[in-house]
Design a protein that fits this description.
The chain is α+β, with helices and mostly antiparallel strands. The chain contains three helices and three strands.
């Protein structure tokens, strides 16, 4: 039987995989990339991603505010050096 955290662990790995391939991305971009990667088998709400930026995962993923081409503020994420090593 899968552990209670197996779905969350899978999401963690998907996010690391996406950010290792495309960076920087905002929450919507990460969610869309996960859906593409899973061939639309996995739907992710943007809000469920933000807990990744706290705790031990904050060593793997860095987030910062930026201004988009349309002059809107967006919080984008990228892998840290430690995160890049972990995702390989």
């Amino acid at each position: 039987m899968p552990s209670p955290n197996s779905a969350q662990s899978a999401l963690d790995l998907l996010v690391l995989t996406v950010l290792s391939r495309r960076t920087p991305l905002h929450g919507y971009g990460i969610a869309t990339a996960i859906e593409e990667l899973s061939e639309e088998a996995t739907a992710v709400e943007e809000g469920s991603l933000y807990r990744l930026f706290t705790g031990w995962k904050s060593r793997l993923i860095a987030a910062e505010w930026t201004v988009t081409e349309k002059q809107a503020r967006a919080r984008v994420s990228r892998l840290t050096r430690a995160g890049g090593t972990t995702s390989r």
